[in-house]
Every structure is written in C-alpha cells, then in structure tokens.
Amino acid sequence: QKTNLMGDRFPGAPEDREALSNAVLTRIVGGTRAAVRAMQTSRPFTPMDRSRGLFGASSSGLPGDDRPTSAVTVGRKQFLASLPDAGAPSRPPTRLAPLPPAQPPPSASGARRSISLSLASTPPEQAAPEARERTHSLSGEEPSPPGVESPRKQRVLPRPPTARKAESGGGLGGEAAETFAASPPVMPQPPSPRTASSAGAAPRRPFSSDVAAPPAAPGRTLPVAPSSPGAAVRRSTSADRHRVSTAEMADEQSWNEFLAILGELTPESADLPALYAVCERLVSHLTRHPLHGSRRKGTALRSLVRMLDMSDPRLLVKVARIVVMITRAAGTLGNVCKLLFRISRDARHDPIFIEEGFVDILVSIVEQADVKESADPLLYACGVIKNITVDEGGQAQFVARGAVQAFASLFFELAAEPTPSGVPAAALANMLAQAAAALRNLLGKPEPRRVLAGARAAESLGTLLATHGRAPALALNIVRILSVLTVDDTCVAAFAGSPALLAALVGLLRDARDNTPLLLRVLFVLGNLTAADDDARLTLFELTESASMLFQLLDQFASDDQAAAAAAAA
After folding, report:
1. What are 212's strand-pairing partners?
2. Which one, of 503, 517, 519, lies nearest residue 552 by Cα?
3. CA-based, 20 to 30 A from 134: which of 31, 116, 185, 231?
C-alpha cells in the first residue's frame, strides 16, 4: 500500500485513487494552508560594512560614475585654499582710531567783541587791515594792496521791494516812502548781557564777513563780525568728532580678548590637556560673542588652520568645532566634513564626536544645508553620521536630536525638485546614497520608524527611486529602508497606499534583473506591502502586466538554479 501526503494508506491500484473521500482532500488543503500561515518572513540580512567607507567594499557603481573617494586628504593647505584671499598675508586686527584732542572753548571776552563803524560811509579800501585780511581769508583770496580794488566784488543783499517801488515813484509815496526809508532794517539782535555772561553759554554764530549787510539808516551803526581769528573760522562741534559708542568699545574689547586666547593655541605645544582647555575657552567665548566681519573671521581661521596638521583626533575635532562656529561657508565647511569623515572611519573615535557636541552640529548641517551650494559638505556629513550610528549608542543620540525628521525633510525637499539646477546628477545621487544609508541605521527601533512613516516618506522615497533608480548605491539603500519599515505592521499601511512607490519598485524589477541583492530586497518589500492590502495587490497586478513579469522572474531564477546545480555536479 501507498501513503498520501497526510500519511493515509490506500490501496495501490490506480482506480482506488478516485475513491479518496472528500474528508481526506479537506485535510490535505487544510494542512497546506496551515503550513503557509505558519511561515515567518525575516528581513534580508546585510553584513555590516566594517570598512566605514562612503560606498562600502562590496559596492560597485555604474561605469563612468564619478564617485568621491573615501580616502580624503585634508589639512592646512586645503583649508587655506578654501578661505577668501588665501594667498594674501594675514592682516593685523582692526583697531579703533584714537580720539582727536579736545579743543578748549573760546573765552567770553574774545568771542564777543563788537566793532562799530559806518558801513554806508566807509569804503572797503579804508577799512581796518585786520578786517580786510579776515575777509580775504574767508573768501580764499590773497589780500589786495592798499589803493587797489579787489577783483572780487562784494555781494550786496537785495533791497526790500517796497523801497525799490518808493524810489521809482510807484507803490508807497510821500510820507509813507520817507517813513520807510528812514526806518532801520530788521537785523538779528545781539544777545543780552545776561545771556552772554551766563556760565557755560555758547557764543552765537557771527555773520559771515564776506557778505555785506544792507545799508543802514543815517546815524546808525550795525554790529559786524568779531575780529578775533578764532571766531572767523567755524568752530568744531561734537558732530565733527568720531564718536565711539559703548557697543563698539565692547566689541573691540571682546575681539582683543579672543586674540589673546587664540595666541595660546600653538602647534608647537606638546601639552594636549592645555590645548584642550584653550579650545574650550575659545568655544565659550564664541558662544557669548560671535565673530562678525570677514576680516576678523579670516584672521581667526588662518590662525586655527595651523593646528590641523596635528594627529590627535580629539584636538582636531575641537578645532573643527571652533571653525564651524566661526563660518559655515561651503568651501570651509566641506573641508571640515572631510576631516571629520576621515576621523570617523576608526570606530574608536565615535565617543569623541558625541562628547564634543558634534551630534547637534551634524544634524544642523543636514537641516540647514542648501543642496545647490553644499552638496559636497552634505555628502561627507551624512557619511560621518552613517559611521557613528553603527552602534546603538550613536543611534540613540541622533534619534533624540531629531535626525530622522531632518532626513525626512531633506528627502521631501529633493522630491519636490528631484534634479536641482547646477547640481550634477551623479553628485546628487552620491549624496542621497549617504543620506539613505545614515537613515537606514537610525531605524533600528519602532519609534523612529513610525516618525518616518508619519512624515510622508513613501511619496518622497518613491519619487527619488523613480528619478535616481539607476544609481545602484542609492537604490539599494532606499530599498533597505523600505525592508525595515515594511516588517512593522504600523508602517505598512502608510507605504502600501502609495501607488508612486509601488510603480518605482516595479521599475526596479525591470532595470535591476542582474543585481541579485537589490532584486531580492525589492521582491521582499513588494511581498510585505501586498500581504494585507487588497488595493496594493490589484495595483501590483496591473503594474506587472497581469503578473507576467513575476512569472518571468520565476523562470529566470529557476534557470539560474538549474545551471548552478549542473555546474556543481560537474
């Protein structure tokens, strides 16, 4: 007798097989269903890359890809080349100009000395020599010798229009004209003696001596400008002096204090604890008094880069922190991130970054960097985060700082503009590959997964896959993120309802048939997304041309298995 799959015995005659009862068939189907339901899927395992490079030892790019190297060389020379006016010598620090000496106030006796003379009856050539010299000194001409008329005619103020009408016979006439002619002109009155003798009162500004006053009435004299030399020249006021505000004085004092501390940071010193202490003082000073002005920043940076040729990793991280506090220009920031990436390639240096406060700095670079201008700094900053977050301690630090939200915002921004103008496609794909690898390391716990699922990451990742899917490193890291998220039941619903993501994954099935690691993960993600969502299954059925693409892949893998078995048997 023979047995069936369920262990039931029945006669071996062929006609007896038709006599199997419906109960036996039911048991067979039920046992098969139970076996399928009992199967547990697990995420494809990826060995940890111990080389800590940008793309890993086993990663290979497309032919012609211009990939950045992991063996970066950065030191004093590279930093100086990124500074403005790198070839110019270091300029001395800015100093405020000394205050001009205070001028003593003029005496009351010399400031007010009136001279009475009849301007209407005294010709200019008979005036006092002192007055003539003063007149010419104000006009800028050489005094004319006595008896010679000056080439510069004196300007006369216009006469009142009523007086001109009276002379011509129009307007006022008779007694009114005589009364007006006899009346003195209205002139500014000199200050009263009480005002002149008041303590601390400033003298009134005299008339300019190069402008003639209107003719006075007969028998009257008018006050003229005093003859003292000091009164003829305009007196300096407080507005003419360079006034230094309290804020300027405090800023200058702060700058001098910074230079004094900076002078203690010398590469010739072999006392590392003392150099650490100097760096901490500089950080404390910059926290309270940030530097302003390109000249001051250039002076400080040229002094700091002298320390970058040293080999102590903690000292280099401290100096890099000071440089970032002074400036975040793209060139200087790129060199800082390259230096940090070189240090982060050694796992023993991971605690240094956390202890020196670089978790906040690295996350802020991801949050604030402009991809169009800072693609290179962002590439190496993400590489540093990827290296530090290999262990759970580093993951917890970056998750607490908000690194998951920062990467989600970066992907959302680039999904809105997948190909920014001015950024080469290869450079953008390389930077995104590092960002995706760093984000993948942060998703080890359920909480960051749910944060990412709630940040509309499905649409962003689908758009980036559709745009840069031909970049193998980027596609593999994004699919690794999805393979982590889709094993969490709370995240499956957010990603299964994204047709754009499903379309991008099916596109990878067409383009990556020769990339077995990538193809395996794509199929794993598609299986998780369609396991409990009917709409996702229907969408996948339509996108794969009624599942014909899936059958072709099954046939391909079956052929590969047969070829491998034949090769092993031979």
Report:
1. 156
2. 519
3. 185
d(CA 308, CA 189) in angstroms, rounded, equals 75
Helices 499-511 and 516-530 pack at an angle, to 10 degrees, of 150
Q: Residue 452 half-sphere exposure, CB side, CA atoms within 13 Å?
A: 34
pTM: predicted TM-score of the whole model, two decimal places: 0.63
β-bridge pairing 211-212 and 155-156: parallel
| Segment holding 565, helix H or strand E | helix 548-569
- CA dist 230 and 292 (Å) reads 44
Residue 534 neighbours by CB under 8 Å, 6+ apart? none
Q: Which backbone phi and psi does 211 adopt, to 5 degrees?
A: -115, 120
* 258-302 confidence digits (pLDDT tens): 999 999 999 888 899 999 999 999 999 999 999 998 899 999 999
Give which of 36, 35, 59 is closest to 46, Cα–Cα. Answer: 59
Burial classification of residue 26, based on how many CB atoms lie within 10 Å of its CB (0-12 exposed, 13-18 middle, 19 or more buried): exposed
Phi (first) and psi of residue 183, to 5 degrees: -80, 140
d(CA 459, CA 351): 36
Distances (CA, A) of 253 to 250, 256, 284, 353, 528: 5, 5, 16, 32, 65
Place of tokens 């100097």: 278
Tokens representing 397 are 């630090």
Q: How many CA atoms lie within 13 A of 315 on its CB side?
A: 22
- Cα separation, 253 vs 248, whole angstroms: 9
Closest residue by Cα to residue 362 from 344, 372, 347, 348: 344
- In this structure, what token pair is assigned to residue 125? 């050539």
Q: Tell me the pLDDT band of 309, cut-offs 50, 70 and 90.
A: confident
What distance lies between CA 440 and its chain's CA centroid? Answer: 26
- The percentage of the chain sitting over the pLDDT mark of 90, rounded to a whole number, equals 35
Radius of gyration of the chain (CA): 45
Q: Using CA atoms in the order 223, 227, 228, 231, what is the torsion angle rounded to 10 degrees?
A: 50
Residue 238 DSSP class: G
What DSSP assignment string belongs to 157-186?
PPPPHHHHHHHHT-SS-THHHHHHHHSPPP
- Between residues 478 and 134, which one has the greater pLDDT? 478
Q: What is the mean pLDDT of the chain?
A: 74
Closest of 80, 559, 38 to residue 302, by C-alpha: 80
Query: Are residues 399 and 445 in contact, defined by beta-carbon separation less than 8 angstroms?
Result: yes
**Spatial separation of the C-alpha atoms in residues 155 and 554, rounded to whole Å:** 110
HSE, side-chain direction, 13 A CA sphere, residue 538: 4
Cα(555)–Cα(402) distance, rounded to whole angstroms? 45
Burial class of residue 131 in the structure, from the number of CB atoms within 10 Å of its CB (0-12 exposed, 13-18 middle, 19+ buried): middle
Closest alpha carbon to 520 in 485, 559, 475, 562? 475
Q: In this structure, are residues 6 and 28 in contact, taking their beta carbons and an 8 Å threshold?
A: yes
**Is 528 in contact with 487 (CB distance < 8 Å)?**
yes
